[in-house]
Amino acid sequence: MNNNDVFKKLRVALQLRDDQIIEILNLVNFRVSKGELGNIFRSEDHPNYMECGDQLLRNFLNGLVIYLRGTKEDPKNPREVLDQIAKNKTSISKDAKKPETKKPFQPKSATDKKPFGQGKPSTKKQKPESPVERFKFNSGKNKK
Fold this sequence. Notes:
Radius of gyration: 29 Å
Protein name: DUF1456 family protein
Pfam families: DUF1456 (PF07308)
Mean pLDDT: 78
Organism: Flavobacterium lacisediminis
Region (Disordered): 72-144
Number of helices: 6
């Protein structure tokens, strides 16, 4: 098992999103971009796959300790932190599942429809010509 596998398993077990991982790494003054994190979590056969180094995993674990336990000056209860994260996730999922209040679909009746070919002309643009057709190619020969 390599560092990438350990990092992936921690992310899944703690249900962390990329922005939370970046926040955890910022607690120990370690800067990493979202794109770099994405490359670390890719499969090994992907062309953008990046190996997770020891330094990144070490800083993540140190930041995770601070994130869950707090510092000596400001200790936290890890259970409360995890419960708060779980509560935030459930409130987000409840908000996402709210049904939207849209008017139900009602088809037009026969009196609302206009006969084909009558009414305003269409303002739709015709299919634009290909930009390649506008250029004249000269292969170096003069045509007379």
